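TODO from last week: model FAD-dependent monooxygenase.
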Amino acid sequence: MDPVIVVGAGPVGLALSLCLATQGVAVVVLDEGAGTDDPRPARTAVLRPDTAALMARLGCSTLRDEGARWVGWRQLRRKQQMRQLPLGEADEVRGAGGAGGAEAGFGAGADASVGAGAGGTVGDGERAEPVHPSPLHLPQHALTRGLRDAAARHDLVRLVTNSRLDSLEQDARGVTVHTRGPGATWWRGSHVVGCDGARSTVRKLLGVRFPGRTAVERHAVAALRVELPWPGEAVLHRQPPWRGGGQEVSARPLADGVWRLDWLLPARGDLVTPEALVARVRDTLAGWCGATPPYDLLDTGVYTLHHRLARRWRVGRAFLAGDAAHLLGALGTQGLDEGLRDAENLGWKLAHAWHHGASETLLDSYQAERRTAVAARLRAADQSLTILRGGGGLRTYLPGTARGHDSLLADGHLGSGPLGAPPAYPHSPLAPPYAEAHTTVDTRTGAPVDDVVVTAPDGTTVRLRDRLGRGKALVVLVAPGTGVWDRRHWLTAGVMPRLAKAVAGLPSPAELLVTESYPGASAHSVLLVRPDGHLVAAFGGVRPDELYAAADAARGGAPETSSSRDRSDRSDRTANIN
């Protein structure tokens, strides 16, 4: 079968190619560049726990050596510390029982308002806050290099450099694209995905509009090696008290003692000269440390954030992902995070189509799920911008307003609440209709499942998240006590033989796993999980017919036949950028 063509070799395009290749799909990646990235320490990526785990599964080797996890989050306002949150890795969060903050957000009840200065700590009488999951922070060029190295090691991924797309044609059985450059040629594929950034050629060739807001936020940034009073903690300082401090400045640690500093600028302010940026660096360091400490300035820049959302993310056999489909980033939200979620969502659906055929429902669900999730994120950010950046008004003087603002900003930067929590798809076209056999667990339908410890039939004990992205649904039986049994016994005992037979008869490939417990699930509950880790349904016991129906819904129903595709797509669609 023809490969999937991915246009663009940034993090999203490379992640999508690896998602597909891991599931046995051949991929051609068209890179208009030379296959290298100039180091820019001030251009960084903040990965939430779900996207960091995805990058690790795809074999990105730079995460551990060149990434840094924050140990805490500190918010200051003028000379007062408003809150301090301890952060930890996923295992620590599970152990502390503090994982529930991600979806709900950091409400005002979590605030620790104290009178300490910039270097202060929470007082002895203050209530300790629960541990929240720590983001992973690394330079974007390091992330791209790690993904590119992983793609180069994979036999099913072909990286083609110096290849700029200039035309795209579609028919009922595939796509044909043409690239110009030293090796100008035509390429034939089963599908094409535009991961080619905000100025996407694929999007233009498809005639898809890209409306939105321009210059939502503007920042000056600097990467420098320096010692700050909060080792390993990320800091957000609003209305700093020194002259020229501006409205907001943040400091986020990277590996090897490097920090990224961001200053919020007026949206349409004056040009920021190198001299003015160095002055900001010195004044900020002096304000935090008492005097300007020795520092090594590595990189600087000024960037403007836009909010845009493509009207369509699918046109026939062509799709858009990442910055080609959406732009966001204000208030600490992460457009790259959303792009990587695009790749994971689309990857398993294209893999299913490549191996087994797919219904229009399955392919359409990519836009239905991901565009809806990103649109909700953009709405939340726009509404929060009005509150946080509007200024003035009665709300400025209301008690508790500052704490509410702090909570919104924490949500965006730490990946919680409407501004940052991993999305759920409760109204997906792939959601099965309700059945009496369904039961409830602490994970709602369509949301990402908890990363519990599971055991496979071969006796392997791993995290559930480690079994994702393999082109198979997961069927998880909650069976307390199985961890201490010999595998030879529990495989043939109780409900296991009946469940194993039901799993073998599902309409799409699935893997049977067992866990000792799952939050909110009773013994012998059965969970059906999509290849990207979202819950399809939970059942109160082994219900083969209902399990089959849910699995069929999760694949979008039976694949369309070639004759029905021919009737629905009789005419070719051709676009040329020239």
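Done. Confidence is low (pLDDT under 50) at residues 95-101, 106-128, 392-400, 563-574.
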